[in-house]
Amino acid sequence: MISNFKRNILKSILFLVVFLNSSILEAQNDSIPKRKSEFWQKVQFGGGVGFNMGSGFTNIALSPNLYYNVNSKVTLGLGLNGSYIKSNNEYNAWLYGGSVLGIVNPMEFVQLSAELEQLRANVNYETTGGTVSDDFWNTALFLGAGYRSGNFTIGLRYNVLHDDTDRIYSDPWMPFIRIVF
Question: What does the alpha-carbon distance between residue 117 and residue 157 come to, in Å, rounded to a whole number?
Fold first, then answer.
């Protein structure tokens, strides 16, 4: 059993610890609101998420982007790309890489873009003789145009580096949707 004297000492110590901690924490809080730096006021985020599944096929994709608004007409961006693709009894693949993007808005509702993308592909094919691995780099240069409304753009882009032996993109034309926050 704790005596009243010890109980009062413990209460006093607890009170001092709580009071001093709250005073120290409150002293760290500025009453002046913090303003974002000019750089971060011009930064936006966006990207894409994809999930496709059916009849023995799975495709999961994630592609976050960071955009810097140079001014009201020009935006520069960096992106990361990652995908996992699996087709039962045929192949599975990991695709990962990055991209550099430039966007021009010559009119309020028109958006033109150029994107250089570099992807690493790790593909495993299932054959009658076993699994065959194929690891390679793929470079794409997309030129695109789209209709823009606020932070939403829908359009079409063309891979000018595409050829018939391209093992990532089967067609040079690709629709896109771009949303930035």
Answer: 13
46 & 10 share domain: no
Instruction: Determine the 3-state secondary structure of 71 from DSSP.
Output: coil
129-152: pLDDT as tens digits: 888 999 999 999 999 999 999 989
Write b or e for each residue in 30-67: b if 16 or more Cβ atoms lie within 10 A of its Cβ, otherwise e. Answer: eeeeeeeeeeeeeeeebbeeeeeeeeeeebeeebebbb
The model's pTM = 0.75
Segments forming the whole domain that contains residue 152 = 38-179
- Pairwise CA distance, residues 60 & 112, whole Å: 27
Asked if 85 and 124 sit in the same domain, the reply is yes
Helix, strand and coil percent figures for the chain, each rounded to 5: 15, 60, 25
- Map tokens 């009071």 to a residue: 19
Which 8-state DSSP code applies to residue 34?
Answer: P
Q: Tell me the C-alpha distance between 180 and 178, whole Å.
A: 7
